[in-house]
Amino acid sequence: QVQLQESGPGLVKPSQTLSLTCTVSGGSITTDYFYWTWIRQPPGKGLEWMGAIAYTGRTYYNPSLKSRTSISRDTSKNQFTLQLSSVTPEDAAVYFCATGGLHTVGLHSTSRDQYDSWGQGTQVTVSS
Question: For the chain, which terminus, N or C, has the lower number of CB atoms within 10 Å?
Answer without folding.
Answer: N
